[in-house]
Amino acid sequence: MPPARAWPPVEWPAMKSPSRVGALARAVLLSLLALAAPGARAQADAGTTAAPPPSLSARKVYEQARSQLVQIRTVLKGRASQTSVGSGFFVTRDGHIVTNFHVVSEAALKPGQHDLVYVTADGREAPVSILQIDVLHDLALLKAGDAPPAAGFAALAFRETTQAPLAQGERIYSLGNPLDVGFAVMEGNFNGLVKRSFYPQIFFGGALSAGMSGGPALDESGRVIGINVARRVDGEQVSFLVPAAFASALLAGSRAAAPLPLPAHAVVQAQLQQHQDTLTERFVKQGWKRATHPRYLVPVPPDEFMRCWGSSDPSKTGGMDVERSDCVMDTHIFVGEFNTGAISVRHESYDGTRLGALRFASRHAMAFRNESFTRLRGEHQTPPQCHEDFVDRDGLVLRAVVCLRAYRKLPQLYDVSVLVATLDQTSAGVQGRFDAQGVSFANAQRLARHYLDAYAKAAP
Amino acid sequence: MKAQIELIDRDGQARLAHAVQSWPLSVGRGLDNDLVLSDPHVAVRHFTVEASDAGLELVVGDTDNGVQLGRRRLRRGERAVLDGHDAPVELTVGRTRLQLRLADQRLAPELPLAAATGLRPAVLGAAAALLAAALLFESWLVNDPTELPGALASLALSLAVGTFVWCGAWALLTKTFTRHARFGWHLTVVLFAMLGWRAADALPGLVGFAFSWPAVPDFAFVLTDAVGAAALYFHLLALEPRRVPLMRGVAVVAWLTAVGLGLWFNQQREDRWGAELYLSHLYPPALRLAKPVTAEAFVDAMAPLQPLLDRKAKEPPRGQQGSDDAD
User: Fold this and answer.
1) Quick check: A122 pLDDT over 50?
2) What is the DSSP letter of B105?
3) How confident is the model at residue A48 (pLDDT cuts 50, 70, 90)?
4) Out of A364, B168, B208, B237, which residue is the most buried by the measure of CB atoms under 10 Å away?
5) Please, which pLDDT band fits residue A27 given cuts at 50, 70 and 90?
6) pLDDT of A296-337, one tens digit each?
7) Contact A68, A203 (CB under 8 A)
């Protein structure tokens, strides 16, 4: 089978140093909004994000929020140059700041090399410490390291949950420091929640740029409704916000906490453990779609939090006809240097009746061989370790391979891949692959069983 | 004539023959010897051969380098009785190879002017036909019907050019050493090596699939390397037909080196000894002999991977696989 496409192309708009551009462009569709590569990125974005001129209310909103807005800089220790910048905002008079986890991930996971500072719109700069992180929703709670002014820090308020929810199409304003150019306000529309997202995210119909990550999105009265987090790079003004409720919960839970012991791998690991339990539970509970193949039951997940793309590819050279199905999650958990926490399921069905048994077997084997079981660099993950055998599913014989990789810095979490080929027909068959990232060993076994059990001969 | 002493060239042919009319025979660099050598590693009077009661006796003269008699190294002043009844006596003095043929030596029968390999043409023809069939089958197997003619043309071209260049290089080398090109010999070696390589490459996958033994195709390179080493041996044999044990040793060392390097490479690059992560050879269902297990048993059998992975996670990373931006 050909390797799965990276999907979706999302960018998280924190801004990073030039060497990190590759990592930023990671996902073809989704882009985290931390800021890196100044030149190239600025040009690439310039054409696509022409926002309308700010309205009167945008001006009002910005003026009100200006003093609560900060830029969060990750600075290379002893070098005074920034490795990544994002945005943030004060949420209490005591100096609590909310931003994205991906804006502070370097400082949280490699504290030996990085310092964290905040810079206000007036240019005031002070150190900041991390109180708590929420990697599942990509949030971090920070606290200003300098003494508060006599009246306390100016802070933004969250939109009360008692208020009527925003209606689709209502104006909202996203604030931040795009591309480290300067603080800015971007006008856009509230478009409800993102469909098929594993964790709730707000669909913001407006422009977000690298560097705006962690900045607030405000309603017309200046209340925080969400936190800028990502944008789709294959669309126009398709951006995403973390709902404010998660930030307010994070604040409520860790307001009085001492600074987080760094590096924070243990916290990341614990939160991923919780995520993989929820994910496995929900994934197994939702079951499988029926009628996915005329001859077999082939596992295809429902569209609850995954999206399936299919294609049909009849051979033009008298060879094998191929049909594909590729199901992926939009949600990935960013944990510093890589993503994890997602599930994908895909299969290809092959019809080689024009080729005959021997030539079909040769194609079947070639497709089976064309699989990679390494994902991350050796510093993050072990090489794959596999188990394989023939498996009998009520009379349907499969060749099955399961490969696992352990995370080096996240103990007891594994990536599991199950590769399956049907072996009952001489000139047709199906190959499927299941991947789950960052699951416990018990859940890896549970998911592998769940996947294998979904194969069977279709009732005639 | 009592004997003939010959100076042997590196191709094994006699370059100079000296008839011995009477004993003793003296050999050395000095012009007063019966056989005068100009090799600077030879002493003024290197050795003499004398008739004694025990038969012919070699007496080593005043030399630092001594005399190599067959496998024996004789030092200054040593004596040795020569036995030349079944084969010529072979001597090395300095860097000069000598051969002493005695009058009473039993001679081997005349060698016919044989074909290149001594194999019957029918055997060669059958092997060539088998290889052609195997190559055709392989092309047919991996190419879609409409792409087959083009693939066959490029296969024929690359095969012809490749074989010619390979055998040509060996023939050139052989000619340099032995004055005979022996192109036919090398062509035969290539023919059988290709057949053997194909068998060594295909059979392990089939066995692995039939019995669900992933280790067999995993270490198929041990077999293919052996075929390569055997081919090397036969190619070298054309260069040095008289040094069979040495060439055999070279081939075995080459085989062990190739296998060792393969294992080391796999270990460094992929952190395992075998070449394949999993068995990826699929054949028509009827060829499967191993019994399938239940899904439950399969998943239960994953359990030993956990301690292994946990141990590997603590080891320092090895090699560079994957990338940060893979999803």
Assistant:
1) yes
2) P
3) very low
4) A364
5) very low
6) 999 999 988 999 999 999 988 888 999 999 999 988 899 988
7) no
For the segment B142-149, the average pLDDT, to the nearest whole number, is 91
Nearest to A135 by CA among A102, A158, A160: A102
**B197 CA: distance to closest CA in chain A (Å):** 19
Give kind and range of the element (H or E) at residue A407: none
Strands ordered across the beta sheet of B67-69: B14-20, B3-8, B96-102, B89-93, B67-69, B72-74
CB-based contact A438:A416 (threshold 8 Å)? no
C-alpha dist (Å) from residue B191 to A121, A250, B129, B199, B221: 79, 74, 10, 13, 19
For residues B98 and B294, give the distance between their C-alpha atoms in angstroms, rounded to a whole number.
Answer: 74
Task: Give Rg (Cα) of chain B.
Answer: 30
Residues of B in contact with A6 (CB under 8 A): 325-327
> Tokens for B295?
């899904």
Q: In sequence order, what DSSP letters do the residues of A221-268 get, joined into one string?
A: TS-EEEEEEEEETTSSS-EEEEEHHHHHHHHHHHTTPPPPPSS-HHHH
Dihedral of CA atoms B268, B274, B278, B283 in degrees, nearest 10, equals 140
Q: Is B307 on the interface with A (CB under 8 A)?
A: no
Amino acid occupying residue B267: Q
Q: Do A449 and B299 touch (CB under 8 A)?
A: yes
**pLDDT at position B325:** 43
pLDDT digit string (tens) for A191-250? 999 999 999 999 999 999 989 999 999 998 899 999 999 998 888 899 999 999 999 999
> How far is it, in rounded angstroms, from Cα A30 to Cα A28?
6
3-state DSSP call for residue A49?
coil
ipTM over 0.90: no
Q: Higher-confidence residue: A43 or B282? A: B282
Supply A3's token pair.
């390797």
Give the pLDDT confidence score for residue B1 in this predicted structure: 67
The distance from CA A382 to its chain's CA centroid, rounded to whole angstroms, is 22
Distance CA B282, CA A400 (A): 12
Please check whether residue A419 is in contact with residue A257, taking contact to mean a CB–CB distance below 8 angstroms.
Answer: no
CA distance A315 to A352: 10
Query: Which residue of chain A is at minimal alpha-carbon distance from B306?
Result: A441
Mutation site for B-interface testing, chosen from A19, A29, A372, A374 by largest number of B Cβ within 10 Å: A374
Tokens at residue A244, please? 């404010």
Q: CB of A174 within 8 A of CB of A217?
A: yes
Measured in whole angstroms, the distance separating CA B22 from the mean position of its chain's CA atoms is 44
User: How many angstroms separate the CA atoms of A362 and A320, rounded?
Assistant: 11
- Helix intervals (H) in A132-172: none
Higher-pLDDT residue of B88, A407: A407
CA distances from A328 to A405, B93, B256, B292, B294 (A): 20, 80, 47, 30, 28
Among B140, B147, B270, B280, which would you mutate to test the A interface (most chain A Cβ atoms within 10 Å of its Cβ)?
B280
Residue A187 has a pLDDT of: 92
Q: What's the residue count for chain B?
A: 327
Q: What is the C-alpha to C-alpha distance for residues A86 and A103, in angstroms, rounded to an integer?
A: 5
- 3-state secondary structure at position A446: helix
Q: What is the pTM of this model?
A: 0.83
Predicted confidence (pLDDT) per residue in A428-441, tens digit: 999 999 999 999 99
